[in-house]
Design a protein that fits this description.
mainly alpha; 11% strand; extended
Length: 148
Amino acid sequence: MVRPFDLLNRWIVPLEKAHDYLTLQNGKKFEIPFDQIILFSTNIAPRNLPTKRSCDGSGTRSRSTTWGRRSTSGSAVRCGERLGLPFRPEVIRYLLDEEHPRRGVRLSACHPNDVLSRVAEICRYEGVPLRLDNGLVERACRDYFTEL
């Protein structure tokens, strides 16, 4: 058992540098990639965890623009382009018109990056070319949004 403080303190440099060093029993040290996703588990109900803040959209057009664009270093670039996904407005429309209402989820500013990142992860895991379609968006939403 390790205290969370000690574990995070140990991981701070490897998380920033994306590599770590391991030492074998014979004393030999070697570098390994350190590409981690930190996942915390709790028995607290998801609705009680203030991990994300909701942002109200100001109309369908601005929501669609938010989903298609993300500000990075002061310049607007498409989330999909950054992730290597082709931008398909009809799939974003499906997400806004079908997936969000079906799940009772209000649109939040973090959703474009989070859901599209999950789509890219699914493609990479399955070893298929990066693509954006309704089926992948549905799977990404099923993985991403917590049922209350």
